[in-house]
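Dear support,

I submitted the protein below through the web form. The confirmation email said the job was done, but the results page showed an empty box. After a refresh the structure appeared. I'm attaching both so you can tell me whether what I see now is the final result or a partial one.
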Amino acid sequence: MEIHRTQVRSTATAFDREREELAEVVAAARLDLEAIGGFWGDGKEGVTFFKGEGGARGYEAVTGQIIEGTEAFLNAHHEIARRLRLMTDNVQVTDWENVAAILSALPPADPGRPIWGEGQL
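What the results page shows now:
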């Protein structure tokens, strides 16, 4: 399989742009979520909504999970773009038949014994 560097780099740039756009949307959504949380105030109903009650998760916990998830998604976009660029710098042509032949010669996976790593040949 031939790797076309310009196409791969173009794809990496698209991931960068999409990440920037997503980051803007996430930042705006975060402000909205914080505003909603602050809207409920310090009364019993507001605290119950924000913190949760009887072991249930409140608004604060749920929005925290949403924010963590979106940050992981944004980091994934960054990593995809970075690794695509890395690939274009290191690989020009790959003979996938040889790679498949090498991988098929490896022993079956044994959870108690790693194939790669220290002390392995």
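Response: this is the final, complete result; the empty box was a page-load delay. The helical segments are 5-39, 44-51, 59-90, 96-104.
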